[in-house]
């Protein structure tokens, strides 16, 4: 009986110290499920660059007043990550301020320069900014990023001008205008 008890005790102790031998399920193949995801991204930024567009007045009697002035110093930086078959567009709208009577403010997205990678899309050409609705300035944007250096991003060309009939409709004045850019999915 002592031998039996000793043998049972040895088997019990062995099973406690070496459980992997008794219940081993390992083989030459191992599998694991890894859940991954890559979310959509839509980011825009304009570096702090002040834009001043001031139509100069005539210096001498009889001289014409300047009718248009442009500025290409602004860059619109972008990071866009879209799903299959999805494209985006950049819209612009005047959200605060009022232009002087008889004037227009236009914007055009010129070619993205420097470190741009991906699907930049297509410029919509010259667009007249209004406060009653957004206008598309760049369309068919896919997954892309513009870079973060000083010259990176879409070049925004602003043109401030008198309306179609200069001098008869323009009224002297000035204002601070806020233009809001939005990156949205195209429908």
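Q: What amino acid sequence fits the structure above?
A:
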């Amino acid at each position: 009986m002592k031998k039996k008890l000793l043998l049972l005790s040895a088997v019990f102790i062995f099973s406690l110290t070496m459980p992997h031998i008794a219940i081993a399920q390992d083989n030459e193949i191992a599998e694991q499920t890894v859940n991954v995801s890559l979310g959509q991204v839509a980011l825009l930024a304009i570096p702090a660059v002040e834009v001043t567009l001031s139509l100069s007045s005539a210096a001498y009697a009889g001289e014409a007043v300047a009718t248009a002035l442009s500025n290409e110093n602004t860059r619109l930086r972008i990071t866009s990550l879209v799903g299959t078959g999805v494209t985006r567009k950049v819209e612009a709208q005047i959200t605060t301020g009022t232009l002087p009577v008889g004037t227009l403010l236009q914007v055009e997205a010129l070619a993205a320069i420097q470190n741009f990678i991906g699907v930049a899309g297509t410029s919509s050409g010259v667009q007249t900014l209004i406060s009653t609705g957004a206008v598309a300035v760049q369309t068919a944007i896919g997954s892309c990023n513009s870079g973060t250096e000083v010259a990176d991003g879409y070049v925004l060309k602003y043109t401030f001008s008198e309306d179609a009939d200069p001098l008869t409709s323009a009224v002297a004045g000035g204002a601070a205008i806020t233009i809001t850019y939005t990156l949205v999915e195209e429908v």
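Q: And what stands out in the fold?
A: Residues 41-185 form one domain.
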